[in-house]
Amino acid sequence: MKTHGIKLLFLILLCFNLSIAQGLKMNLEGGGEVELNKNNTPCLNETQRAEIHSILKENVNQLQQEGKLMPVNKQGGHPLFIWPVIKAPGVDYESVWAISGYVDENPAYPNQLTDYNCGTRTYDTSSGYNHQGVDIFTWPFWWYQMDNDQSRVIAGAAGQIVGKFDGGYDRSCSFNNNMWNAIYVQHGDGSTAWYGHMKNGSLTSKGIGDNVTQGEFLGIIGSSGNSTGPHLHFEVYDNANQLIDPNFGPCNTMNPDTWFQNQKPYLNTYINRIATHSAPPIFPTCPNTETLNLSDQFYEGDTVYFIIYLKDQVAGTQVSLLARSPDNAIYTDWTYDLTDNYYASWWYTSGIAPAGLDGTWTFEVTYQGQTVIHPFEVGILGTEDSSIAQSTVYPNPLQNKLFIESEANIVSTDIRDVLGRSVSNIKNTESNINEMDVSFLSKGMYFITLVSDENQSKTIKLIKE
Question: Per the confidence metrics, is the pTM higher than 0.90?
Fold first, then answer.
């Protein structure tokens, strides 16, 4: 198969090495698989894990002696977690994570692997360690996400902080004996969740003995401790301090049901992000931050790189891409067959920004029933001296009111959903439109097009959470 570009290799991810193999796939110009290579070292060594258990036991006893321990009801049933990773507000991703490994249900070793779904998406070591948590890595742009606090760790269930360690080095690229930055939360039934590998200095200001609510901020995903790149290791113990697998499936031998409110599918097939770039992103050696080369503004004759970032790509599926011109007509489209199963992948194609079609374009991608739309500008509307080019709207994510800031006189607005249907259209040729009622919008993604009295326009993506 003909290949384009240079093969890139870099370390990333929890207790794995991560590499990107670039090459031509079904006429796509470049990109590739995010390839997980298993290693033989646990995220915590046996001494560290024993020390953590001992410290947590001491902390719980101390809180109990001081009368500060949250009441424990072991007959009340276990907690039901929400997903412990979310994107930060305003982050222009559909999703910021992917899964590299589940709990290993098979006690044999080495290379005796069984996850809860009877697959092998886990690992063990020759020393007898079987992976004990769910590993959730940031994708795309691991270090950029960490540097810009884009991936947040939240409490999967309400509880009381019974352990906390911060201050550890957070840009690990190799295996070591460093302690990770982590929060440990005990729940109302006495079970405990471990949240490990977080960014130095990012952890909640709350301390041991303080309560947290479900969904409360705990920290930022990092690469502290025994790690080769930013990820969250989520590990759970029941009220008898026995390891459990929070995911339930036909090969879960640890517990009889799921510990998630809405358990994620085994394959979380999703478009994590689409974007337009002035050049393909650069992935340097760990732990240097990626060069994204993002751009939403182009001039006639510029090369526009259209890039998609997928998780859990499925062999035998198709991805469809199209570019829509400012008059909402399809300018060009592509459909590609995906022939491999990948935990994470990125692919790109490119085109030349044409003359005579200045305005706001859209790049649209559809994969497995999900459609994502990204606006970009070509020509005069992409220049800084355009009176509408710097227009902004806030707050975004939306609340009940939307406010518009623009040097231009905005005389009409049109809000459309992801299917292109108009849900709000306002025209006012006599005065400037600077605020709108958007309380009627349901949760989801929208696009607002602002039009000035000089017939200039700009399209901005909106999120309603």
Answer: no
